[in-house]
Specification:
Number of helices: 8
Largest sheet: 8 strands, parallel
Shape: globular
Strand order of the largest sheet: 2-1-3-8-7-4-5-6
Structural class: alpha/beta
CATH superfamily: Ureohydrolase domain
Order of helices and strands: EHEHEHEHEHEHEHEH
CATH class: Alpha Beta
Number of domains: 1
């Protein structure tokens, strides 16, 4: 069954002053997706209140989470969720984990592990907490019905962490595959096999890429993965495992013209996911 696409131009999970560019990024990608299999989630323009959660804009984030789950529930088969910020993966991974009855490995391609809590986060931005929430450690309305076991998570390409995240990774024993080890698919495939899962969800924050590969990055981090290597990794994973879902997040073009410069790289990644 071919993939469907769910476009979620959410910006409220970002802590950046340039967060609204995430909306432009999602819309730029949408323009090259097949209309018949593309669905949209209505994201409110307003920021939303914290609601005493410690999560910035929690009210709007909860609303988008509910709306995204509702759209995903109407789709037969698996979907690629297009952000927006990384918070869009809360609903997307949660839905995939329900569909597979928890038999799911989550590969988190990202420069950051997104494992903060409201207590440890320097910014209060949910995009930096979403993976921790998926593991079940989050606030009401922003955790999945079926959490993902930490033993089923593989962090790939991270290279910027906060102290609280480091402590949690060590305690929880979360698998990590370095940028150097992503030069070939072998180490990543071994890490996935060690989870024992038989299906895979791929989350891709585009900042896992080296800034030399793509300009539309909200928080560029040097020494990232090359676009060619990332595409090869995606193809290797999808050849070895059924894909239960995927997300592509964090595209932050400075202008419509700048978006065009990066779309070739992003569309090749989408092509690898759907091949």
């Amino acid at each position: 069954m071919s993939a469907s696409f769910v476009v979620v131009p959410q910006w409220q999970g970002s802590g950046s002053s340039r967060a609204m560019r995430l909306v432009d990024g999602a819309e730029a990608i949408r323009g090259d997706l097949p209309a018949a299999s593309t669905f949209s989630v209505n994201v409110p323009l307003e920021a939303g209140d914290e609601l005493d959660t410690g999560v910035a804009r929690a009210g709007s984030l909860r609303l988008v989470h509910e709306r995204t789950l509702a759209v995903l529930a109407e789709i037969d088969g698996w979907a690629i969720t297009i952000g927006g910020d990384c918070g869009v993966s809360l609903a997307a991974v949660g839905h995939a984990n329900e569909r597979t009855a928890g038999d799911l490995a989550v590969v988190w391609f990202d420069a950051h592990p997104d494992l903060n809590t409201p207590q440890s986060s320097p910014s209060g931005a949910f995009g930096g907490m979403v993976l921790r929430a998926l593991i079940g450690d989050g606030v009401e309305g922003l955790v999945p019905a079926r959490p993902v076991a930490a033993s089923r998570v593989v962090l790939a390409g991270i290279r910027a962490t906060d102290e609280g995240e480091e402590d949690f990774m060590e305690t929880a024993g979360i698998a990590r595959v370095s940028v150097a080890d992503l030069a070939t698919p072998g180490p990543l495939l071994e890490a996935i096999a060690a989870t024992g899962a038989t299906s895979v969800y791929l989350h891709i924050d585009v900042d896992v890429l080296d800034p030399a590969e793509i300009t539309g990055l909200n928080n560029p981090m040097p020494f990232g993965v090359s676009a060619a290597a990332l595409t090869d990794l995606v193809r290797a994973v999808t050849a070895a495992y059924p894909l239960a879902g995927a997300s592509l997040a964090g595209f932050t073009p400075a202008s419509p013209e700048a978006a065009v410069d990066d779309l070739g790289t992003l569309l090749r990644l989408i092509g690898a996911l759907t091949a």
